[in-house]
């Protein structure tokens, strides 16, 4: 019986060719920028550095806070709410009926100067619970119309105060329509008149760029429902600063707007007689009206918040600095060797 051997192929077997091409690597090309290896400041926050930083903030913030509080303390401010006293006592509906009637709304108020007030004395009116930041209210105006005479008919955003009897209203919109219209006149107990200057009470940028010198009021407050103040149709909008001040809407429901300036000094104990016209309707929405007389410091009006905020931050940093100092001396912790950090061992990253 012979052993049979199977036939063999004379040619050697070749490896099969790959049917798919080689995949391209998604690895980005190396650069120091993509691998974040460019020179950079990498500080090591040691206890000394942290304590020094907190003490530096304390040294800077505390004096600023003290100076701010002293500046605010030097401001003399007189605040008088008059909406309740200048309307008949009774229910809310009675007050609304009174403010909407043709009755005489003249009101006399007496103010006493608590401290010496150096000119200029700023006269503000303050409104509470008036939401000038309401979306529909803020959008009800036409900046193009206010700025350019040729855009007089651009009233698409002014509804419902866009036209009256088919003619365009200038300025249009609810913001202008609801303009504050209470008036104030001042005199001392010696019957010396205190004239109120209204020149320069608005922002210069608003007068020059947002309200045109060739744009004049037209058909304003000529509808059946009167919202607020009337405007002189012979004076351009750029010169009607009461309107410009009112059109810069407030962000909060309680706000003050500048009415004018008194260019006379007032001594402590002086009595100011105020004759006002209580025309503006805040009774419909439970609003409040206040008359404010105030001086100003290098920081502005009376505002204790800035000084308190600086003192709070400075005091907190001082407490943290003292706490870390005590921990550092009482229970110190050994610091590691910075030479073992990755960017110190291989600055190139490879």
TrEMBL record:
Protein name listed in UniProt: Uncharacterized protein
Protein's organism: Smallanthus sonchifolius
């Amino acid at each position: 019986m012979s052993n049979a051997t199977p036939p063999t192929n004379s040619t050697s077997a070749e490896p099969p060719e790959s049917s798919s091409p080689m995949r391209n690597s998604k690895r980005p090309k190396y650069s120091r920028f993509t691998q974040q290896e460019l020179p950079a400041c990498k500080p090591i926050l040691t206890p000394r550095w942290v304590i020094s930083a907190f003490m530096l903030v304390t040294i800077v913030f505390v004096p600023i806070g003290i100076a701010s509080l002293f500046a605010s303390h030097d401001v003399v401010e007189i605040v008088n709410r008059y909406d309740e006293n200048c309307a008949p006592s009774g229910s809310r509906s009675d007050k609304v009926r009174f403010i909407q009637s043709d009755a005489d709304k003249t009101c006399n108020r007496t103010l006493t100067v608590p401290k010496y007030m150096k000119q200029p004395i700023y006269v503000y009116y303050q409104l509470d619970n008036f939401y000038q930041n309401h979306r529909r209210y803020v959008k009800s105006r036409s900046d193009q119309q206010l700025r350019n005479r040729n855009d007089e008919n651009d009233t698409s955003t002014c509804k419902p105060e866009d036209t009256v009897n088919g003619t365009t209203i200038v300025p249009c919109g609810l913001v202008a329509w609801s303009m504050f219209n209470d008036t104030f006149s001042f005199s001392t107990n010696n019957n010396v008149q205190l004239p109120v200057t209204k020149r320069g009470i608005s922002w210069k940028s608003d007068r020059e760029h947002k309200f045109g010198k060739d744009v004049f009021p037209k058909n304003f407050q000529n509808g059946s429902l009167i919202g607020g103040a009337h405007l002189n149709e012979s004076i351009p909008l750029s010169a009607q600063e009461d309107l410009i001040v009112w059109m810069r809407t407030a962000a909060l429901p309680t706000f003050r707007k500048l009415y004018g300036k008194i260019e006379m000094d007032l001594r402590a104990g002086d009595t100011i007689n105020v004759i006002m016209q209580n025309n503006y309707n805040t009774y419909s929405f439970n609003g409040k009206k206040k008359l404010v007389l105030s001086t100003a410091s290098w920081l502005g009006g009376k505002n204790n918040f800035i000084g308190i905020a600086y003192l709070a931050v400075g005091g907190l940093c001082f407490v943290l600095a003292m706490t870390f100092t005590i921990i550092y001396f009482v229970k110190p912790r050994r610091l590691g060797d910075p030479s073992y950090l990755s960017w110190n061992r291989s600055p190139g990253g490879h």
